[in-house]
Amino acid sequence: MASAEGVVLEAQTEVRKQGLWLRAWAPGLVCLLLGFLLVVQLRTQRTVGRTPTAAGSAPMVVLSTLVEANARLRQERAALTSQIAEYQQASGQERLTALVGELNRLRIVNGLVEVTGPGVEVRIEGPLSPLEMQDLVNELRNVGAEAIVLNGQRLVASSVIASSGDALVVNGQPLTPLYIFQAIGYPHNMEAALTRQGGLITLLARVHEGQRSTVTQRARMVLSVYTRPLQFEYARPIE
Question: Which of 9, 49, 107, 232: CA 20 to 30 A from 146?
Answer without folding.
Answer: 232
